[in-house]
Amino acid sequence: MSKKKVGIIIGVIAAAVVAAGVGFYFLKGRSNGGNSADKVYVEKVSAIMNQSAGINNRYSGVVEPQETLEINKDSERKVKEVYVSVGDEVEEGTVLFSYDTEDLQMQIDQAKLEMEGIANDISNSNAQIAELQKEKASAPEDQQFEYTTQIQTLQTSIKQSEYNKKSKQAEIDKYQKSIDNSEVTSKMAGVVKEINENGVDPNGNTAAYMKILATGEYRVKGTIDETSVGTISEGTPVILRSRLDETQTWTGSISKIDTESTQTDSNSSYMYDGSSSGDSASKYSFYVTLDSTDGLMLGQHLYIEPDYGQGEVEEKEGLWLYDYYIVQDDGDPYVWAADKKNRLEKRKVELGEHDENLGEYEIKSGLSEDDLIAFPMQGLYEGVAAVTNMEEVDYSSPLYNQESTDDSGMDEGMYDEAGTESMDEGMYNTDGTEYMDEGMYDEAGTELTDSGESGATDSEVVE
Q1: CATH code assigned to 55-66+222-312
Q2: What confidence tens digit (pLDDT) does each residue in 348-403 have?
Q3: Helix (H, G, I), strand (E, B) or coil at 119
Q4: Which helix (H) or strand (E) holds 21?
Q5: What is the pTM of this model?
Q6: CATH code for the part of the protein at 39-47+318-399
Q7: Taking the domains of the chain in order of start, what are their residue ranges?
Q8: Which regions of the chain are under pLDDT 50?
């Protein structure tokens, strides 16, 4: 056997040994579930499909009247008695509360006494004027001026007293009017919503003493935070659901979004989609005009969600799954499902009908409602750990950073970013075929001699 053939045989054997080592390392890595830091969140099929369209964009709302009556208290007066309580229904003219009139009556009595004194002063002044005029008639000429001055002074005093008398009468009329209006009545039919004894609401903001919500046509006031306010607009159709029975629904549309009046929540607020709005998120109010108010109660709390047609969906028989969870490459369709050891596997499924409107496939076999599945993100591989707690997922692991350098412990160049085997540089082409060492083989795989001419082929070596 020539030295050339012996060298070729040794080279082939070495390449086979290296390939076997790579394959063993690859299989060893796979059997251990890939990189230990890789974890994938899985969720029950039933939980995924029970999340109807729009549930991730739910907002809180409360039924309120189209009109609200705010009654402010006279800060200079004292409330004697309140005749209603929060939640009471009132009619137009119902007495709500009354002011204390004792001080007013005392002021009236005092003013009347003062008026009697003024009247006596006027009467005395007129009597003095009459007496002075008699004396003036018989007085010498050099005393006439003195009498005239005294008479004019008394006449001026009478005019001042008459003015004071009119002022006192005005005071009495004012006090009497306050007494007559000491009972405050409702100007419309409604329900007592608030009574703020101290003039502030529960949040410490200045508020009317009493607030009445009109009965009749209702609207719904919703609350949305600053991070989500851009997702709604006036005219958007919505579905409103009872918090006690979500099958009980109403429809309407957003009629107004109040972005000028903000409410700052100092506490962290929790959205229905599970996200936190932060420690000091600003909130805005929006209003929904209802298509029908049948069955609604004033003050009732509701869920508000944009109407994507979920209210018109009829319940379908069998198991259905969103089509984006199903992988349909060239082979049989499958989903990424957790096995009994909580490791991800490709689970083949048999598909039935396809609902193009909702983007759902009927699953005839291969999957149940209790199975745990993962979203088919790029780079998933069989054997990766499956977890049901999203907080356990390390998004800094190689699986979620496929463009970064692989720090999974595998030799660089041996595995690609998805965890699949990658051929050593210089040994294999990108398509996986063997790459010949430079200077030994030409592009066709024919051995090159030292002179650059073709020598024996692989088949000749085998022989």
Answers
A1: 2.40.30.170
A2: 999 999 988 878 999 999 999 999 999 999 889 999 999 999 889 888 888 887 76
A3: helix
A4: helix 3-31
A5: 0.36
A6: 2.40.420.20
A7: 39-47+318-399, 55-66+222-312, 102-180
A8: 2-33, 52-55, 265-279, 404-463
